[in-house]
TrEMBL record:
It comes from Lucifera butyrica. SUPFAM superfamilies: Xylose isomerase-like (SSF51658). Residues 23-247 form the Xylose isomerase-like TIM barrel domain. This is Xylose isomerase-like TIM barrel domain-containing protein. Pfam families: AP_endonuc_2. InterPro entries: IolE/XylAMocC-like, Xyl_isomerase-like_sf, Xyl_isomerase-like_TIM-brl.
Amino acid sequence: MARQFSLAYLTVLGCPPPEMTYIAAQAGYDYVSLRPIYMGLPGEPNYALNENKELMRQTKTALAETGVKLHDIELARIHDGVDVKKYLPAMEMAAELGGCAVLSSIWTPDRKFYIEKFAELCDLAKPFGLTVDLEFVPIASVFDLKGAIDVLRTVQRENAGLMVDTHHFHRSRDKIEELEAVPRGWFHFAHLCDAPAEIPASKEEMTRILREARLYVGEGGIDVAGILGRLPEVPYSIELPHVARVKEFGYAEHARRCLQSAKDYFAAHSREQNF
C-alpha cells in the first residue's frame, strides 16, 4: 500500500481551503487537513466553512475536481471554560466533506475539567464517524506522551486517538521506546516535520520555531525515522510552517518541497526502520 500524505493548514498558513486543495493536488498529496474552526488569532483568516456557504461550495468543488480528500480538521482546543458543543458545526461540515478526524489539544491545567470535556468531544464526534485525536504540544497543558496517554486511558472512548507530531515529540523530551507500549489502535495519523536537534531554552523561541520555522524532513536533527518506525502505517500530515520560505517560494512550491523532502527521507531510511 502506497504511503499517504496530507497537506496541513499551518504549512500554507492563510491559504483558503479551495486554493489549498488545488495546491495539494498539484504537489501530489492525497489529503488536505483544514482549519475550519476559527481560533481568532491575530491576522488569521476565518475559514469557518459552516458559516460561509460560498467558500464551502468552492471547497467541495475543489475536492471533487482534484480527487484530493479531506483527512482531518482542526483545532478543537480544550481550554478554560470551553463549551465543546461549539465545535459541532465544524464536525458536521467535516463529515459532509468525507473527513476522518478532529484534531484536539489541551490548554487548561484543570485535569478534571479537560478529562470531562475531551470525553464529551469524543461523544459529540462519534455520530459523525469521526475520531478525536489528541495532540500533545510542548507549550500546552498536556505537553508530553505521558499526559496524553493519561487522558486516553481515563476517557476510554472508542473514537479517541493519539496524534504524534515529530516536532512536539522531540521537544517534549519523550523517549522513542515509550511509543512501543501505546495501543496501535490509538494511532490514526501523524504530523511530519523536522527541526534543529537542540531544544530551545525559552518558551518564546520554542513557540517561534513551532509556529513559523520548522524544517523539511531530513534537514534538521530530529530522529524522525526512529519515531515513525514505532508507529503503525498511518497517513502523514505534513505540518511544516516556515514563514520565510513561503515568502520566498510561495505556497505551492513550499508545499511541493515539503512533500518531496518527506518522500526522499522515507526512501533513504526505509530499510533501516522497516518502513
